[in-house]
Design a protein that fits this description.
mainly alpha, name from scop, 4-stranded mixed beta sheet, 6% strand, elongated
């Protein structure tokens, strides 16, 4: 017990989305049974209030027909009570449906077949045995006493209304069923307030049970994001591969389009193999600076065209031909380069 308390004290971090998702998959959800009971009671009150006239009329009709059929066959008595039975079943169906929907709303309508399998540790648990001697058990005890007292107070009021309803002859006052429903309103309100408090309490405890230690949170973050050392090695490897590609492709380019220092795009056109000019390399920051150095070393013309450079770096992948919307702009750049260098368009090193 002391070890559990110490472990709980170390859990200072709120549960991560991954921890919450794993708990849900195991069937651990914040569930208040009082919410279902309060919703069912409210549904009963509402249904009885709305159907009070029909239920009262069906009950009186059954009593009259039963008196008229006194001495008749049991089948006739059953047939006379069918309307009342049908209304009662409808009311119970509404109550059951509301209870099911309320429970499902709390659990997200999840289904966990593994929880249906009986396990000895659920039936015989030392934690449950000593629960009454814990702080949580003391809170549960106080809450149970308050809940029982409030429900008894509200239930006595409903019973008084029911007794009052039975004193009036039918037709001289509101239908007895409606008066009974009116008496249950206070009970439903009390049950709803209790359910709201219990729901807050259960969700708070649920979050507390799933709280994490700082080392657990760091380990989980590392697993999701990846080890920083591994990520660093991957980035370096990617930079090395990109650098190698730049070193190969820039000297073979027809032109380098820049913006003017942060972006560089190497463009090449080979008439026999390309339908349009193609982007063979591009880079930003240090990579762009490296591309400009290579272009100067190998005599590749550097052309500043800010709008074109921005478009190519965002819209065109390496190895892809330039789209028709900028074909004219790229062709203008290449025409300028061919005119300055004296090269024949569409020729050059492969």
């Amino acid at each position: 017990m002391a070890e559990q308390a110490d472990d709980q004290d170390e859990r200072t971090e709120d549960p991560s989305p991954r921890r919450l998702d794993e708990a849900r998959k195991e069937g651990q959800v914040a569930l208040s049974r009082d919410v279902g009971g309060a919703a069912a009671l409210l549904a009963a009150v509402t249904t009885l209030w709305l159907a009070s006239g029909a239920v009262s009329d069906a009950a009186l009709d059954w009593v009259r027909r039963s008196l008229m059929l006194a001495g008749g066959s049991p089948r006739e008595l059953v047939d006379a009570g069918l309307p009342l039975v049908g209304l009662s079943v409808a009311v119970l169906a509404v109550i059951w449906l509301v209870a099911v929907v309320t429970g499902g709303a709390q659990t997200g309508f999840g289904v966990w077949p593994n929880l249906l399998i009986p396990k000895p540790d659920r039936l015989f648990s030392l934690r449950r045995l000593f629960h009454a001697f814990t702080k949580e058990g003391a809170v549960d005890l106080v809450f149970a006493v308050v809940k029982a007292s409030a429900l008894v107070w509200a239930g006595v009021g409903a019973l008084e209304r029911f007794i009052e309803a039975t004193r009036f002859p039918a037709g001289l006052a509101a239908p007895p069923v409606a008066m009974l429903a009116g008496g249950l309103v206070r009970l439903a309100l009390v049950a709803g307030a209790i359910a709201a408090l219990d729901l807050v309490l259960q969700r708070y405890r649920y979050t507390q049970r799933l709280r994490m230690r700082k080392d657990e949170l760091k380990r989980e973050h590392k697993e999701e994001e990846g080890d920083p050392l591994v990520k660093g090695r991957r980035r370096r490897k990617h930079r090395d591969l990109l650098k190698g590609r730049i070193d190969i492709e820039v000297p073979r380019a027809d032109a380098l389009v820049v913006n003017p220092t942060h972006i560089a795009i190497a463009v090449r056109y080979r008439r026999k193999r390309d339908g349009a000019p193609r982007v063979i390399a591009k880079g930003k920051g240090e990579q762009a600076a490296r591309m400009r150095e290579l272009a100067v070393q190998h005599g590749v013309p550097v052309v500043q065209n800010i709008p074109l450079a921005r478009f190519l770096v965002k819209k065109v992948r390496v190895g892809q031909e330039v789209p028709a919307e900028v074909y004219q702009a790229v062709a203008g750049v290449l025409a300028f380069v061919y005119r300055v260098t004296g090269r024949v368009p569409g020729t050059g090193a492969e």
